[in-house]
Amino acid sequence: APADPLHRVAQASERRLATAADVAAVKWATGAPVDDPAREDEVLARGRALAAGAGLDPAVAERVLADQIAASKTVQRALHRRWAVGPASRPATEPGGLAGVRGEIDAADRALVAALAAAAPQRDAPACARRLAVRRTHVALERRLDGLRSRALAQSLASVCPGAGPRAPGVSAPG
Ligand SMILES: C=C(O[C@@H]1C=C(C(=O)O)C=C[C@H]1O)C(=O)O
Questions:
Q1: How far apart are CA 40 and CA 127, in angstroms?
Q2: Distance CA 132, CA 143 (A)
Q3: CB 61 within 8 A of CB 103
Q4: What is the pTM of this model?
Q5: Which of 163, 64, 45 is closest to 113 using CA atoms?
């Protein structure tokens, strides 16, 4: 049987989040800040364009990608804090450049937008949030995510189900 579309959404999100440690290592090595607003704008604009091509509401892609970005920064900041206080925990290998890992992020974004487009009926179902939570838990177990990454995965998926996330209509979001 084909994978449940919400499972594919959770998998694509985890795949994207899995790049956060490499991004954090590059920034740690170069002293670059975690926040890169110009790159974020680029990611969101690309996501909107990909969504339009896939028959997905660009506003949905933008909300979900904004959560992906926030989740990546959650992991990056947490790792930087750990590395600051625990030299032994610092990455041992010299990371490659940002360009390579951003290529992986772009590929994950294409998969994520395709999965979101395919999951339109599941997103509209009243059981969306409950089903997505089950899929997210499976992915977290499958990928053996630690607490930090499990929580970040939940953050990254917060706007997938209409009405389930902090950015849902009627719920005020900061900024
Ligand atoms: C992942 C990065 O770090 C942050 C998160 C981004 C993202 O998740 O796409 C984009 C820019 C940065 O603010 C990055 O710099 O590529």
A1: 31
A2: 16
A3: no
A4: 0.92
A5: 64
Segment 76-96, tens digit of pLDDT: 999 999 999 999 999 988 778
Distance CA 50, CA 57 (A): 10
Which residues are CB-contacts of 94 (< 8 A; sequence separation ≥ 6)?
29
Q: Across residues 24-47, what is the average pLDDT? A: 97
CB contact at 8 A, 52 and 144? no
Length of the chain: 175
* Residues lining ligand 1, Cβ inside 6 A: 23, 35-36, 39-40, 43, 68-69, 72-73, 98, 102, 105
Could you tell me which residue, 148 or 174, shows the higher pLDDT? Answer: 148
pLDDT band at 7 (very low <50, low <70, confident <90, very high): very high
- Domains of the chain with CATH codes: 5-156 (1.20.59.10)
Which residue, judged by its Cα, is nearest atom 5 of ligand 1?
69
Tokens found for residue 94: 């010299």
Give CA–CA dist 44/139, Å, rounded: 25
Asked if 71 contacts 153 with a C-beta cutoff of 8 angstroms, the reply is yes
